[in-house]
Structure formats: structure tokens, C-alpha cells
Amino acid sequence: MADGMAVSQLREGTPFRLRASGLAGTVGALIGAGGQGAAYHASIGGKPFVLKWYHPHVLEADTRLPGRIARAVERGSPDPRFLWPIDLVEVSGREGLGHLMALRPPRFRGLRDLIAAPPARIDPPLVVRARTCLSLAESFLHLHAKGLCYQDINFGAVFIEPSSGEICICDNDNVDVNGAPASVYGTKKFMAPEIVRGERMPDAGTDLYSMAVMFFYVLHAWHPLEGRAEYEVALMDAEEEMRLYGTQPRFMFDPADASNGPVAGFHDAIVRRWRSLSEGVRRLFVQAFTAGLRPGPAGRVIETQWRAALARMADSILACPACGYEHALDAEDADPDPRRFACVACGAEVPLPPRLLLGRDAVVLCQGAQLHAHHLDPARPFVYGEPLARVEAHPADPAVTGLRNLTADTWTSRLPDGTGAAVPPGRTIRLVDGLEVDFGRRRGTVAAGQSPTR
User: Where is each Protein kinase domain found (predicted)?
Assistant: First the structure.
């Protein structure tokens, strides 16, 4: 097989032509090769791209592949976060096929690095992990809304910008119309139990299960079904894998069945993270890995459910002042109980900072917290991008915090005593209890910090 792959590879400098547009380009240096084909740097008119060229045996085995890519090119990307095929690539005098796609920016890291061994491991903060999941939910919502199925959601397909949670999704040549004959079964540990058992091929419903597994991995760096049952396996073979992920799958945090629960002293870090998540997100995980272990739409959590819960959680995260461990509060609690709660990692008391109440939504105003279009413009829900406001400490007194206007518009504010002031671009307004701010398209009220019950 290795010799066949070498024969199928292209030489640097080889000219190629795009089938639909007729544009000509040149093959650049090899990026890497795998089971499906090889990826190369490519140039068209001086602009950089990536060319994926398929091994001959792949085209022979997957006869639907050229048609899938041609249809993908014709319909266009369902979401900008997919590195979607731009055009089919042909090389004069050579049999075979490839496709062109955008070059992934170097700031992105493979999502697999979340569970890599140090020093390769990345450890983004909880708010970034939540926004990564939210972006994935949005991307697959748009893909499924087009009547498409991804078929093989897995670590290798997703890349993350570790400081923001921005994502890009690769390996889109498996995408097909939902219900069409599948070209792959999926990737081990991400496949729905019915696929593992050989009862079903991938579709949009099994995508939802794989997506939930991905979310659990992103937030916990662990698989949701690997509790006591996996811990007690002496030799992980095909039979044990079938039992754990196919015939007897059990969620490690199933509230009705503790038989596959976490093992004290081994899963402690997973338990801490689970306890630190918002109730809304935990509730969806329980549904996804109890009722959602069975095929059919009834138990599978859909993208809009994840999106709403993850957005709320991202807005409610604060760190323990003693050890820095991050917790998510339930933003639904508009009037939290004033009793205190303890950090799940070190047991220290964690006070609640001020919050900005925006209708039914609330944002925890920790130092460094940011507001985006999602918060300030009702017409742009779930849009983050550049921050529009940021919480900053007073340079002379870190205990005093303010909200800096990062927009080009002037806000208006009103204090509880009725006095008001303008907040021009670049200026900061002190956060005090009862402060009202008119951001232009939305109004918010600051609620003083308390210490809620967990």
C-alpha cells in the first residue's frame, strides 16, 4: 500500500486545472499523506490553497466520492467554518482526482490536542471550550438544515483557535445528502451505539450522538461512557469495545444507574469538571447519553438545544479566587440565593461578582469578561467575533471594576439616584448595583455581586 501511495503522489511544481472554473494552478510542497490521499500546498494566481489528491484505491473503493465532491462544489459551503471543497482538480496526463480547499490558518490547533500528552496538550479556559462547542453546534445545525449528513464527526476533523474557541472543520469529502448510502461508518468511540452494533449506517441522527460525544470530550477531555466499566477492563479487545460502546453503553453520570459511575481516585478530575458545569448543560448530557443511547430522534439532543445551553453557560463562568478553578453558574437564576458556595476543586469560598442582566439573560462580569454582538444586538444572536465591551479593573484600585466601551457608538447610563452620563467610545463606566446602560439596541442592568448556592 505504501508503494501505491507513493506512485499516486504529485510532484512539486506539477500544473493542474480546476474543472468548473478552468483556472490553472501549481502543486506545492507536500503537507502530509494518509489513508485517503495526500494534501499539498497549492497556488492559483499567487494565492495559497490546499489540494487534496486521492489515492487510486480510494476512488476505486468509493465510487460515489467524485459525485459527492462535485455536488458539494455546486451547492457551496453550508457555513463558513467548514473548509469546503472549492472545485475539483485534474492533472493533465494523469488518472485520478483531487479537490481544492482554503488553507487552514496556522493559528488553529487540532482538537485532538485537548487530550494529547504534554507538552503538546492545549488547555483553553472553560469559556473557550464552551464557545468551541457552541460553534460546532451552529456549524452542524447549518449543515443538517441543508439536508446533509457529515457521517464521521471526530477529533481529526476539527481544529480550534485556543484563545477564542474559533473553529474550522475539515475532511468534508464524506458529507452527503442525509439518507444517501454512507461512505464510512465513522470513527471509533464517536459512532452511535446502533452503528457500532452494525444495525445502521450514519445519518443526521447519528451525527447528533457523535456531536454530543465531541462536546463531552471538549469540556472534560474524557469519553462519556468510560467509567467504572472501562476502568475494570483487563484487556481492551474488540469484544470489550463492542460491550462498552455498542451493546451495553452506560453514561458515567447516569442519575438512574451508577453501575458505570466514576471511580474515586481515578476519575476525580472528570467529576470536578462535571460538577462545575451549569445545570442546563449537565441536563442535556444526561439526555444525550441515556435516552440518546437509543436510535431515533426522541432522545438525541438537537443543535439548538445545545446552542442555547452553551451560550448561557459561557456567560456564567467565574474562577475560584483561591485556586483559579473555573465554575459555571446557572444564568437562569435572576435572583440568586445569597448563601455561599464552595469551589469544587479546593473548597474555598467563591463569591459572585456583579452580573449584567439583559432581559432573561445574564452575564457574569468578572475582570476580563467580554460582551459581544450576541449580548448587545438582539438581531445577531450567537455572534461573537470582536468584543464590544470588556470588564477592566481600575488601575489604582483593583477592587473597583468598570465596563469599557469598545464600540464606535456612545452608550447612555443611569445610576439608581437618577443621574445619567454618556459613555463615549473608549471610555469606561464604573460597575455599581442598579446601574442601567443603554447599549443602543439593548438595555442592561448591573446586579451587585452575591454568593449563590451551588
Answer: 25-318
- pLDDT of 296: 85
Where along the chain do its domains lie? 2-101, 109-308, 330-447
The length of the chain, given as a count of residues: 454
- Asked whether the beta carbons of 333 and 359 are under 8 A apart, the reply is no
Determine if residue 265 is left, alpha or beta; phi over 0 gives left, psi from -120 to 50 gives alpha, anything else beta: left
| pLDDT tens per residue, range 246-284 | 999 999 999 999 999 999 999 999 999 999 999 999 999
**Quick one: CA torsion of 214, 220, 224, 230, rounded to 10 degrees?**
130
Quote the CA–CA distance of 207 and 13 in Å, as a whole number. 39
CATH number at 2-101: 3.30.200.20
Nearest Cα residue to 316 out of 288, 280, 289, 270: 280
Q: What superfamily in CATH does domain 109-308 come from?
A: Transferase(Phosphotransferase) domain 1 (1.10.510.10)
Q: CA–CA separation, 101 vs 41, rounded Å? A: 10
Q: How confident is the model at residue 331 (pLDDT cuts 50, 70, 90)?
A: very low
Strand partners, 168: 159
d(CA 45, CA 26): 9
In CATH, 330-447 is 2.60.200.20: yes
* Topology alike, domains 2-101 and 330-447: no
Letter for the amino acid at 393? A
CB-count burial class (<10 Å; 0-12, 13-18, 19+) for 387: middle
Rg (CA), the chain: 25
Whether 450 shows a pLDDT value over 80: the answer reads no
Give the sign of the dihedral formed by CA 82, CA 164, CA 141, CA 379: negative
